[in-house]
């Protein structure tokens, strides 16, 4: 039974990442994924891969740790998710750890992994962060974590065991910190995986607090995603994570806000109603063990605050008369839109960048008359070839940008004749 559940976990995560990899269009870039060795204390022989975009957001760029699923690798998570393309856009550094033990799952169950003073995978990952701070001038005050499946579990563990290192995290199809705890060396907890480890919010919160006794500083914010049809790390783990992190933050389990960002999604926020509330949960109706899907990474980045300051102008970017530059800015420079295409025979993915002009805007509508054969879209509402903001990306600070995307059949839209209207 344990092997079959682990196999399902692996296949579910790997299948969706393969699907996403086919639809992600990354901008052309000279930056590449590189392996770093001898990065410091590494008790479990993890490997470290690093992505530094061509242009970083500031002299001290923020850092994101992106943690893979079982049987995965850092390079596979790099290729199969949107985090590197978002790093290109917003100028943060991404660390991709790789587990090297049999099965390539991360240790989220041993006493050594669940303690701030432990000597398992979390200690090695924190060594990677400290290496980037020391050797790539990363901002130690802006360090974040995300991950899928085994990586989603590790996100919970990292935020619990190293609240002094991580500012926020986004866990896709994970479980609460210490839910997977074992003492028999098996590394697998069927009770937790099956959604049968149900405790009070206080009990869950105490497990986080006991991971670093005596810690009195700020606690990281947590965003968690889960599908209601997940039969691998079953759906009750979603609610248990919310219990845990609301208790850690001293919050009520009654949401401050509930909305529906997309059909079938229910988002709840606790302790605040803004994009960066202390705790946020997104429940996906009918979705199994197959996250993150296209577009969800951008919501995670917004929650962590990694989209609040982008890189400076690229000296090699096209001149104002060249294809690929923002088209049809509105009077006063309210907003502009540019389209980037990933085209193949019979289909395309279009990524649209919406940029605010000299003033902050609180909503936008983009018209792309040449868009055709559209089959799906993300991070936007759509009416034909007119696209509008959703609740979490309407506000764009002056000079900053957000992205939305859509996929279609046939030939993708041109970058002329498009308009952006601010509201």
UniProtKB/TrEMBL annotation:
<feature type="region of interest" description="Disordered">
    <location>
        <begin position="305"/>
        <end position="336"/>
    </location>
</feature>
<dbReference type="Pfam" id="PF10503">
    <property type="entry name" value="Esterase_PHB"/>
</dbReference>
<protein>
    <recommendedName>
        <fullName>CBM2 domain-containing protein</fullName>
    </recommendedName>
</protein>
<dbReference type="GO" id="GO:0030247">
    <property type="term" value="F:polysaccharide binding"/>
</dbReference>
<dbReference type="InterPro" id="IPR029058">
    <property type="entry name" value="AB_hydrolase_fold"/>
</dbReference>
<dbReference type="InterPro" id="IPR010126">
    <property type="entry name" value="Esterase_phb"/>
</dbReference>
<keyword id="KW-0378">Hydrolase</keyword>
<feature type="domain" description="CBM2">
    <location>
        <begin position="328"/>
        <end position="423"/>
    </location>
</feature>
<dbReference type="Pfam" id="PF00553">
    <property type="entry name" value="CBM_2"/>
</dbReference>
<feature type="signal peptide">
    <location>
        <begin position="1"/>
        <end position="30"/>
    </location>
</feature>
<feature type="compositionally biased region" description="Pro residues">
    <location>
        <begin position="312"/>
        <end position="329"/>
    </location>
</feature>
<dbReference type="GO" id="GO:0005975">
    <property type="term" value="P:carbohydrate metabolic process"/>
</dbReference>
<dbReference type="InterPro" id="IPR050955">
    <property type="entry name" value="Plant_Biomass_Hydrol_Est"/>
</dbReference>
<dbReference type="InterPro" id="IPR001919">
    <property type="entry name" value="CBD2"/>
</dbReference>
<dbReference type="InterPro" id="IPR012291">
    <property type="entry name" value="CBM2_carb-bd_dom_sf"/>
</dbReference>
<dbReference type="GO" id="GO:0005576">
    <property type="term" value="C:extracellular region"/>
</dbReference>
<keyword id="KW-0732">Signal</keyword>
<dbReference type="GO" id="GO:0004553">
    <property type="term" value="F:hydrolase activity, hydrolyzing O-glycosyl compounds"/>
</dbReference>
<dbReference type="InterPro" id="IPR008965">
    <property type="entry name" value="CBM2/CBM3_carb-bd_dom_sf"/>
</dbReference>
């Amino acid at each position: 039974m344990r092997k079959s559940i682990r196999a399902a976990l692996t296949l579910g995560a790997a299948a969706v990442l393969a699907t996403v990899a086919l639809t992600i269009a990354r901008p052309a870039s000279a930056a590449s994924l590189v392996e770093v060795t001898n990065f410091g204390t590494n008790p479990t022989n993890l490997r470290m891969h690093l992505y530094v975009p061509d242009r970083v957001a500031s002299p001290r760029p923020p850092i994101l740790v992106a943690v893979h699923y079982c049987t995965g690798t850092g390079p596979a998570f790099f290729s199969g998710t949107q985090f590197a393309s978002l790093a290109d856009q917003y100028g943060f550094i991404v660390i991709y750890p790789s587990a090297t033990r049999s099965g390539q799952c991360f240790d989220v169950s041993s006493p050594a992994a669940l303690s701030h003073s432990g000597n398992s995978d979390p200690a090695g990952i924190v060594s990677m962060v400290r290496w980037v701070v020391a050797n790539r001038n990363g901002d130690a005050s802006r360090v974040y974590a995300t991950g899928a499946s085994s990586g989603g579990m590790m996100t919970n563990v990292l935020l619990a065991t190293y609240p002094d290192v991580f500012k926020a995290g986004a866990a896709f199809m994970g479980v609460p910190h210490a839910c997977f705890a074992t003492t028999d060396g098996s590394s697998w907890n069927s009770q937790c995986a099956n959604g049968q480890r149900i405790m009070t919010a206080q009990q869950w919160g105490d497990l986080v607090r006991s991971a670093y006794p005596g810690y009195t500083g700020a606690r990281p914010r947590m965003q968690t995603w889960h599908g209601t049809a997940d039969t691998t790390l079953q759906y009750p783990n979603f609610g248990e994570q919310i219990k845990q992190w609301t208790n850690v933050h001293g919050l009520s389990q009654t949401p401050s806000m509930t909305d529906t960002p997309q059909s079938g999604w229910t988002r709840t926020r606790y302790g605040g109603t803004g994009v960066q509330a202390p705790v946020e949960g997104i429940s996906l109706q009918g979705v199994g063990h197959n996250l993150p899907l296209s577009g969800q990474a951008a919501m995670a980045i917004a929650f962590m605050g990694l989209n609040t300051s982008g890189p400076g102008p690229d000296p090699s970017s096209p001149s104002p008369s060249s294809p690929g530059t923002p088209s049809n800015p509105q009077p006063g420079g309210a907003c502009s839109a540019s389209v980037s295409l990933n085209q193949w025979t019979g289909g395309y993915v279009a990524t649209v960048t919406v940029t605010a002009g000299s003033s902050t805007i609180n909503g936008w509508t983009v018209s792309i008359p040449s868009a055709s054969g559209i089959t799906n879209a993300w991070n936007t509402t759509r009416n034909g070839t007119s696209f509008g903001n959703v609740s979490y990306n309407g506000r764009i600070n002056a000079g900053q940008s957000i992205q939305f995307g859509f996929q279609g059949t046939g030939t993708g839209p041109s970058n002329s004749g498009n308009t952006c209207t601010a509201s």
